[in-house]
Amino acid sequence: MNNTPKEILRFVEENDVKFIRLTFCDVFGNLKNIAVMPNELEQAFSCGVPFDSAKFDKSAPELLLIPDIATLSTLPWRPKSGRVVRFFCNLKCPDGSDYSADMRTDLTNYINQLRLKGYSCEISTRCEFYLFDLDEKGEPTKNPHDKGGYLDVAPLDKCENIRREICLSLEEMGLNPKSSCHKHGPAQNEIDFRTNSPVNAADDMVHYKTVVKSVAAQSGLFASFMPMPLENEHGSALNISLKLKKNGKDIFGTFPDALTHEGKCFISGILRRIAEITAFLNPTVNSYSRFGVGSAPKDIRFSDSDRSALVRLSAANGISPKVDIRSADAACNPYIAFKLILAAGIEGIAEGNAENFSSFSQNLPENLETALDIARSSDFVRRNLPAKAAELIFSRMDSQLQKFSNFNSPAAFSDKYYFPYI
């Protein structure tokens, strides 16, 4: 709707907007922002907003935030008088060139390359989280907000009002929630998003966590996206569903017909490369405590019926099939995760080998250290992840392994203390 800088400036003036948040995602998947006043917005569109980026990358001490004008949305939990809006931004160097570790730009460029080859992609996510009570000092406890279970309703489900507020806030921001429910664990919840372009789906995923945490905080609760916050309970996953077309034709065929050869090759590519990219889909020590618990996958295999398989073909009569990748968690950088999954599948199509797609079986890495070693030695990762991004991520993972070398228990709870951004 507001698709030109002039229209956006008019919107800001007419709607009493007093603060503009210029948000971006660092290479680790954490949402960051700078707030500017309305009279700075025109210059932000034309020249960008410089900021000290040495904290993120010492080799790039200053970067520019360039607002993406298509991502304007109002923050619904802020006052209606003196509104706050936000844009997602791309990162550029002071000379105007792309910052090499800006994974939003990298994913955008990759999708454009696929488009030139005739491919179009849509991605949807289902992301789980827990709600915990606070203590008298306002700090998170280990006490789940309810004792409900899968698809329970009130009074067992005490989270339904918060999920409603989250979904309404997401809708007001222009994000696309599809459904919500109580999941298996006590006070565990899930919100399912409609399909979107890969970049927009990643934008939604990054901001979704902020919305959930903000709404939960307003309700006196703590929202945790930690992969395994409670021992002996279900972990929280980020399920990634992907639809892919070539020249307008679905490569996975049409249900109930058999998978196309191209679809089988795409799945084969993911199966062959998933171990090499697991460190990016599951980037914390705690991530690996979730594998094999409940329906979370513990090995690498495909199924069109088994809901515990890592890669699954999901289809219903009259709906185009989609491929579900079920191993990721919300600690990942979705721009990186989406690109590497797509690149693995496209590589499989290029190789044209679907021989073992239904019989492939291999264990997932058992821990972050193993996953990191596999990623470091991967030629596929070197080809598909910018060197600067890989350097920064590997360094962060090394530090995490050193700091949490004895952090083996999934019950060592709070992401507030251990993993503050999830």
What is the name of the CATH superfamily of the largest domain? Glutamine synthetase/guanido kinase, catalytic domain
CATH class of the largest domain: Alpha Beta
Outline, from the CA principal axes? globular
- SSE pattern: HEEHEEEEHEEHEEHEEEHEEEEHEHHH
Distance between the termini: 32 Å
- Which topology of the largest domain does CATH recognise? Creatine Kinase, Chain A, domain 2
Q: Architecture of the largest domain in CATH?
A: 2-Layer Sandwich
- What is the structural class? alpha+beta
- Provide the gyration radius in Å: 21 Å
Describe this structure in words.
- With 422 residues, the chain is an alpha+beta fold.
- It has two domains: 5-99, Ubiquitin-like (UB roll); 109-403, 2-Layer Sandwich (Creatine Kinase, Chain A, domain 2).
- The chain is 32% helix and 25% strand.
- It contains ten helices and 18 strands.
- The strands form three sheets. Strands 7, 8, 9, 10, 11, 12, 13, 15, 16 and 17 form a ten-stranded mixed beta sheet that branches. Strands 1, 2, 3, 4, 5 and 6 form a six-stranded mixed beta sheet that branches.
- Helix 5 runs antiparallel to helix 7 (334-351), helix 6 (261-281) runs antiparallel to helix 7 and helix 6 (261-281) packs across helix 8 (368-376).
What is this structure, in a nutshell?
The chain is of the alpha+beta class and 422 residues long. It has two domains: 5-99, Glutamine synthetase, N-terminal domain (Ubiquitin-like (UB roll), Roll), CATH 3.10.20; 109-403, Creatine Kinase, Chain A, domain 2. It has helices at 5-14, 41-47, 103-116, 160-172, 198-218, 261-281, 334-351, 368-376, 379-384, 387-403, and strands spanning 17-25, 31-36, 49-52, 62-67, 73-74, 83-92, 119-134, 140-144, 177-182, 188-193, 221-224, 238-246, 249-250, 299-300, 302-303, 311-316, 319-325, 362-363.
